[in-house]
Amino acid sequence: MKTLSNKIALVTGAGSGIGKAIATLFAEHGASVVLADLHQVNIEAVAKAIKVNGGTAICYAADVSREDDVKQILDFTLQNYGTLDILVNNAGIMDNFTPVEDVTDELWQRVMGVNVNAAFYACRSTIRIFLQKNAGVIINIASVGGLFGGRAGCAYTTSKHAIVGLTKNIGYDYAQKGIRCNAIAPGGINTNITHGMEPNPFGFERMNAGAGNVPPAANPDAIAELALFLASEKAYFINGAVITADGGWTAY
Length: 252
Description:
Elements: E1 8-12, H1 17-28, E2 32-37, H2 40-52, E3 56-61, H3 67-81, E4 86-89, H4 105-131, E5 136-141, H5 154-173, E6 179-186, H6 201-207, H7 221-231, E7 242-245
Parallel strand pairs: 1-2, 1-4, 2-3, 4-5, 5-6, 6-7
Helix pairs in contact: 1-2, 1-7, 3-4, 4-5
């Protein structure tokens, strides 16, 4: 039997990068996958590739920073599959390495909306589904930026610290309900998250102060493999944890 046979998994930000890799790997291991992303064309391409390889996938284009959109994604999931077993909150954006003095209200709200609010909305609704069957897994994609202060700008760093707190609180609160919630804190991963960025000079310089210690970036499959383990029964005793996957960057 495949690792995730008969499981239903929802992955946000599934149109590219880490989300795409997770959705594809989950499908290869037997999960029926719901792909959510802002860009319809991207998730359609991912879903098509999954089906060509014999997997099962459906997709729903939405802005996960909006609560109504998150509710629509979950309604879509339940209408098609009847339940949900695994939630992966992967959708995220960067902040141009902007220091606090230069963070505009618009930037702050946009980063917090995608990186924090989206995960909160999805967790809140999903927990209610999980409680009905005393089972479920949540995997939040955090960042080494959520563990330390010098890996990104003010808004991104704050948002990922919030994800770490959200993960630990949910993991503890629902540990006796058959529900697990963990986070992955990636280091450098080859994705398009920095595409089109215009780094703040001061913030970028401060972030790069320790760049000489940064190991080569990994491909998204490195995070997908870890997510697969956390989603599986093999990780039954891992809960409320934040697992760093950065090639040793933060070990220095």
